[in-house]
Amino acid sequence: MPHRIEVFSASCPLCNKVVDEIEAGKCAGCQLIVYNLPESLELARNYGVRVVPTVIIDGEVKIEGPPDIPFDCSDETYAHFKERYPLTFQLAQPSTQLTILLISRQVNRTLTEILC
After folding, report:
1. Number of structural domains, the chain?
2. What CATH number does residue 22 fall under?
3. Each residue's pLDDT tens digit in the chain (116 positions)?
């Protein structure tokens, strides 16, 4: 089953090793995209990237550092990654995050005015 595999890298030896292992284990239908972290900071923030390498698979799996098993494009490997490394950080558009923050601040001000 083809997957979209996104890797956030800093071109360090560990990052290069993880990218090489994914390249060797992915099937022909998989799409591998490698982002250089300093050039992709906004996208990295949207995924909640904290370390390199970070691997995102289909927007559902987030592996920080090297995975615990070798990467190969199989249903069993994907199921393992999905169970072990679920992407729990919900993606939101930056404008949506700002809107929520502004609404939250306004609600807090209103409550403070009512209570004081």
Report:
1. 1
2. 3.40.30.10
3. 799 999 999 989 999 999 999 999 999 999 999 999 999 999 999 999 999 999 999 999 999 999 999 999 999 999 999 999 999 865 554 444 444 444 545 544 544 455 55
Question: 107 φ, ψ to 5°?
Answer: -60, -45
Q: Per DSSP, what are the bridge partners of residue 8?
A: 35, 54
Domain membership flag for residue 45: yes
Q: Which domain holds residue 23?
A: 4-90
Rounded Cα gap, residues 31 and 60, in angstroms: 15
Q: Residues near 7 by Cβ (< 8 Å), separated by ≥ 6?
A: 15, 18, 19, 22, 32, 33, 34, 35, 53, 54, 55, 56
**What is the pTM (predicted TM-score) of this model?**
0.75
Residue 25 in tokens: 């284990």
SS3 46: helix
Contact 5, 57 (CB under 8 A): yes
